[in-house]
Amino acid sequence: MTDPKPSFLARPAVRMGLIAGAAALGTILVMALYQSVSTRKAEARQTVLRLVDITERTVDPAEWGKNFPRQYDGYLRTAEKYSTKFGGAGSEGLPKSRIEEDPRLVEIFDGYAFAIDFNQRQGHAYMLDDQRVTKRVTERKQPGACLHCHASNTVAFREVGLKNGAPGTLDEAFTSPNAQAQLMKGFEEVCKLPYNEATKLVKHPVACIDCHDPKNMALRVTKPGFLRGIDALARSAEPVPHLPSIEKWRKGDKAAAYDANRDASRQELRSMVCGQCHVEYYCGPKTTLFFPWNKGLKVEQIEATYNDYKFPDGHRFFDWKHAKTGAEVLKAQHPEFEMWSQGIHARSGVSCADCHMPYQREGAIKVSDHQVRSPLLNISRACQTCHRFPEEELKARVEAIQNRTHALMGRAEDAVVALIRELDAAKKAGVPEEKLAAVFELQRKAQWRVDFVNAENSMGFHAPQEAARILGEAIDYGRQGQIALKEMQGGSWAAKGK
Length: 498
Ligand code: HEC
Ligand code: HEC
Ligand code: HEC
Ligand code: HEC
Ligand code: HEC
Hints:
- The chain has 498 residues and is mostly helical.
- The protein has helices at residues 12-46, 61-67, 69-76, 98-101, 104-108, 127-133, 135-138, 154-163, 177-192, 195-198, 208-211, 224-235, 244-250, 260-263, 266-275, 299-308, 336-341, 344-347, 352-356, 379-382, 391-428, 433-455, 464-489; strands at residues 320-321, 328-329, 359-362, 365-368.
- It has two domains: 61-382, Flavocytochrome C3, Chain A, domain 2; 392-489, Butyryl-CoA Dehydrogenase, subunit A, domain 3.
- The protein has 23 helices and four strands.
- Residues 1-6, 14-19, 25-46 and 493-498 have low confidence and may be disordered.
- Bound molecules: heme C (5 copies).
- Residues 344-345, 348, 350, 354-355, 375, 382-383, 385-387, 394, 397-398, 464 line the site of one heme C.
């Protein structure tokens, strides 16, 4: 035992073997890693592997889904119902009613279709069905223009345009002059059709083709109202630092229209695709649908655009005559793009898609979540990529903003309702309409502002200070109207305001 054998591991042959083994193992590991990397690369390639040929005629999202199954899967899941404190439409069968939740709205919308049916929004999967069944459509006459934002109509518009004499064929690239002529002609024609006829032309809610170029999947905007509206905005003098491509276009000769599909950056398009629909608009029977952006995106700029706008019959723009007071008033609808434009996130270059379609990792692939929904259901991916606060804290910050907006909005609605009641009392007391003209203007201003915040769907989050500013003005105009009435008649006939 005095001649100890070298330990087993120290024997040269064994060492050689070990080294060789390690090398082999290393090789195997490297091979395995390579294998894995290349399968991932192959997976990544698969997302652009064309299993089916997609063209400017392919409306059905299921066809696109064969090439892009992950995005299609998310898209289908917009049918999932949910509720947050202020978001979603509830998980029950029917969406929650906004006018049952807040009966003041019935008084504010008196004489207009929104007083009979107005629900919380739900997922994109429902947009066409919800429109077809709303009492605003079944019990009132509506134009084909309603479909602009509730269906995939890129192809339908072009087909109708072709039938009405627009040049070219459906195969031409969307951005070609012929295709644009088809689109705009068809849009004008479909807007004029009665809703029940126009709705037969479409089959799907918003679809891949409305936001993507079938050739290379690049983002694009296809809705005529947006294409025209964003050009009108570009031609205005209003600064839009959050849309740098517009600022750049303004420095040119402006000979060609601002064209988002040519001029906008990818990051801008990540909001503009949503701005095709989540905006204030006019879509009545009197003229073709338009986005009122000629003077800018702020509440008073849109109001000024409407005030300057004359219908073909020469009358100043209004949405309806208030049934109680007779004032010619305005209805606001979902100005998400406009409110976002006034907020710190837009100013910091944060897009709608950053929060509402955040990336999710699947293996080596980054996929945009096509289940468009409330970011509060998904704070880790929607917010924590930029904010390193705990989830609970971020949620609490959002709710603090929303609770404050909600409370102030309640006060503003009270002010508007009080003014409506007193105007009604004044009319009943026999005050002549001419004397009330200035107060009708105050009702118009007050109710337009409160509605702008109420119809905006983030309950103040997209631009907290702007929402508070607008509500402050609404309260002021409402109360100014009451004071004017009191001064006019010494308050003798006026009902006790709330
Ligand atoms: C910084 C993140 C962020 C950005 C950017 C953003 N949003 Fe939102 N959005 C929110 C939050 C938070 C809510 C409130 C969700 C809730 O109450 O559940 C919300 C609510 C909404 C809602 C209502 C959602 C629901 O569940 O009912 C819509 C619609 C919406 N946003 C559209 C847009 C559009 C369109 C844009 C771009 C023009 C945009 N948002 C930009 C964070 C964002
Ligand atoms: C073609 C028009 C259109 C486009 C484009 C569009 N939306 Fe919508 N969006 C709607 C309509 C209509 C609804 C309401 C559907 C309903 O209530 O039936 C809706 C609902 C929503 C909701 C509420 C979801 C829920 O489950 O409650 C969110 C959030 C939303 N949209 C965000 C976005 C964002 C972000 C974009 C851009 C990536 C976008 N939308 C693009 C028309 C559109
Ligand atoms: C410019 C785009 C646009 C046009 C035009 C449009 N909508 Fe919508 N609509 C939306 C968006 C965005 C939502 C989701 C946000 C919301 O509910 O506020 C929505 C929601 C709805 C809803 C579900 C919530 C509710 O209000 O009950 C109905 C129903 C509806 N619209 C009917 C109509 C009708 C009827 C017309 C024609 C008079 C019309 N829409 C025209 C964009 C549009
Ligand atoms: C309302 C607009 C909208 C619709 C509708 C839409 N997408 Fe997208 N899609 C986006 C946005 C925004 C992005 C992010 C693009 C970017 O940042 O370049 C995106 C990205 C993609 C990408 C690139 C990879 C990724 O995930 O970021 C693919 C592929 C894609 N979408 C497929 C589809 C398919 C398939 C459909 C239909 C089932 C569809 N999209 C419907 C807005 C939309
Ligand atoms: C792409 C980055 C990005 C994303 C995603 C993002 N934010 Fe922000 N957020 C910012 C920036 C930048 C600011 C500006 C202030 C700053 O620099 O911190 C900001 C500001 C804020 C503020 C302060 C608002 C104010 O008026 O001062 C709040 C609250 C906030 N974010 C909440 C959220 C929530 C909630 C989400 C998710 C729904 C979110 N953010 C998603 C970048 C982002």
